[in-house]
Amino acid sequence: MSELSINTTQNVKINFKAASAGERIGSYFIDLAVKIAYGIVISLIFFYALQLGKLLDSLDTWSRMSILLFLYFPIIIYSITLESIFEGQTIGKKLVKIKVVKIDGYQAGFGDYLMRWFFRLVDISILSGIIAVVTVVSSKKGQRLGDMVAGTAVITLKSTINISHTILEEIGEAYVPTYPLVIKLSDNDMRIIKETFQKADSRNDYETIHKLVSKIETVSGIKNQSGNERDFLRVILKDYNFYTQNM
């Protein structure tokens, strides 16, 4: 399983493990099963209406084909729709615990998912997916052609981690928060803040800490009340955990 390094917008390098070909194939077949189940249900409903109902009796062949296309259209746009809604995951990817991410650190957007979906015609539809398997196995970042074009990769979320690698902070029951505006930040923001702070703190990199504090103040509107930038960042992390755990 290859390592995948992503440089975030805060110039922090984060290491992930690229999803293996087996994980991606497993996700594909789960999604395929979902599509088949949907197709079976739609087929039963359609043919029941066709044989026993009077709704479709007066329609010509082209009209019926148009209805079929409409009914089966969700299967066609299945992957791009779910990846857009669930930020890089389909039902199969959720169950296998893998996810599509941008290799430049930004959140993948609709255009990226669209590009990956379009290249499924080459990667998966042609030669029954052999092209996708070959490119994933041979690519250093575990990418198929669609990923290479879109600038994305699929990572595994199964890595063993501890609290120092997450946005979680240990806070007591009597903890009193200081900065309510911290809820303007997202989980991804806090992960980047924590990882940047930990690295800068271990190297006594005061310049990076100062830039990080300035960025937080600009984005969230929070003002450092402690005077100590390290203490400010520690409080920000704890406050975020307090508010998100009690929402």
Automatic annotation (TrEMBL):
Q: Which cellular compartments is it found in? A: Membrane
Q: Which residues form the RDD domain?
A: 19-151
- Native species of this protein? Flavobacterium circumlabens
Name-wise, this protein is RDD family membrane protein YckC
Q: Which UniProt keywords apply?
A: Membrane, Transmembrane, Transmembrane helix
Sorted alphabetically, which InterPro entries does this protein's record hold? Answer: RDD (IPR010432)
The way this protein sits in the membrane is described as: Multi-pass membrane protein
Which positions, given as ranges, span the membrane? 32-50, 62-80, 117-138
CC terms in the record's Gene Ontology section: membrane
